[in-house]
Amino acid sequence: TNAKGNSVESAPSGSVTPTASWSGTNAWANPSAAGWPDATNTGWQYTGVTLTTHSGNYTASTASAVIDSLDISGQVLISANNVTIKRCRITVSSIDSAAVINTGSYTGTVIQDCEIIGGSGTTHGSYNGVQTGSATVQRCNIHNFENPIEAGDGLSLQDSYLHGFIADYAGAEPHYDGVECGSGSNFTVNHNTIDNDSADDQT
Fold first, then answer.
1. CB-hemisphere CA count at 13 Å for 111?
2. Mean pLDDT of 59-65
């Protein structure tokens, strides 16, 4: 369970373990072979589920709701406590909007085994991938954002793959942040691959 008492599932077979050590250049070439997250052991695909299409935004307004195995083309708006989003693909095309956003001060969110995609993927991305606090983000593949994670109080990021950094506007001069936090406390960032592979080569 997480800090709010919600169930956090154990990793499916073949997923990453938190005991690996980083081994330099070879690990960047093939993170999963070195025991780290990449596209082969995060997101929905390696879980083997078949997705059901959901067009447009999805509002999670029921406490303890479970959103499972959806292909969502729009934002996920969290408007209740203890919402679980798992084994989903979430694609947002809006430049300024976050793909998954906590619309208030809701707690206990779990985002697990999801692929979260922003923007066009070629000319521009979206600004934030996941924008929430009081949440556990686990084994997610998050890409095509300027800031994959906008963290609020109590966010835990585990075993996830953040990559494909791209500006939200074509031709912009972005400031990339794998995990961005303006203020707050009680953050956990543990055993993730955060690959700023942008042409700007920021750190």
1. 32
2. 98
Helix, strand, coil percentages (3-state) for the chain, rounded to 5, are: 5, 35, 60
Starting at the edge strand that comes first in sequence, how are the strands of the sheet with 156-158 ordered?
A: 66-68, 84-86, 109-112, 135-138, 156-158, 188-190
Q: Which helix (H) or strand (E) holds 29?
A: helix 25-29
10 vs 2, 7, 16, 123, 131, CA distance in Å?
A: 12, 9, 11, 37, 24
- What's the whole-model pTM score? 0.83
Distance CA 143, CA 166 (A): 8
Q: CA 136, CA 112: separation in Å to the nearest integer?
A: 8
Backbone angles phi, psi at 12, to 5 degrees: -65, 165
Residues 6+ apart with CB under 8 A from 74: 54, 55, 56, 57, 58, 91, 92
Lowest mean per-residue pLDDT among 64-73, 143-152, 185-194 = 143-152
Average pLDDT (79-108) is 91
Q: What's the Cα-to-Cα distance from 120 to each of 43, 169, 192, rounded to whole Å?
A: 19, 10, 24
